[in-house]
Protein: Fe2OG dioxygenase domain-containing protein
Organism: Hypericibacter adhaerens
Amino acid sequence: MESPAISETDRERPPAAPAEGLPFDPLLRAGAQGRATGFNAIPEIIDLDRYPLHQPGSPRIDALLREGRATLEQDALFSLPGFVRPEAAAFMAAEIEARLPMACRVQAERIAYYSDGKDWPAGHARSVTHLSRYHQVLNHQISNNSPLRRLYCWEPLREFLRRLMGYETFYRSECPHLALTAKVAGDGDTDGWHFDGNDVVFSVVLKEPEQGGRFEYFPNIRTDKDENYEAVAAAFAGRRSGLRSARLAAGDLNVFQGDHTLHRVSPVEGNRKRVVGLFCYDRAPGTNFGEPYVEELRRQMPGASRPG
């Protein structure tokens, strides 16, 4: 197949030379007429003065990596406050909210665990259900020139996260549905108590609600050897001991290890929505999500027929 032609007006101006000793990244270039337009340049999106991810090996980045690893080990959540500039976060939130008419609407009672195929008795931690209710904008619904996608595809971010997690390999997902997504929660929406099926989640908060929408979690409440069902059941019953509650702010980049950490998003209150972008990576190349999960998403799309 032939490549599409590029008109003279579409061609980029020659980029400025990169700083000595640093690899050139094309997304650091300025936009038309020497200035960024529509957040099409990384310095317009990320506060590179605080977070110079394009300078791997610098003292600031090495310090961030040390801090992040130590924080994740103890707390399971590592946040980079103000990573995304306020104007860029607001732009991306509005872009996502404009896609709500085509978004999935999740509304279901779910258990906190991935199914193990066993029949657990009523009242057991593995059988208790929790309400999840929110909109989800899928990868193919986010435009290719979106600054949220530009952020997700920025190579220094991927490399920073790889080094933070200590992975030898680390690839962006190729799933057309779930590689890049966004969750939008309005008044009364929530993401109920659960454990994640993967070991780490990367997110960026684009908009905060007026009230509620707090990220609540019990760090490392279980291990590979001990499910600690008694403590999990107590958490479901309202136990507060050991609970941590974070009001994640717009612009924060968050790294969260939720496979052993019970967590939820408390109900949103008010007319202002909570908007969060989610970035999917994997240690294996070419990953896609399973068809049963994708089929469930299709049933939640506007206009889809639902059973019953």
Summary: The chain has one domain: 25-299.
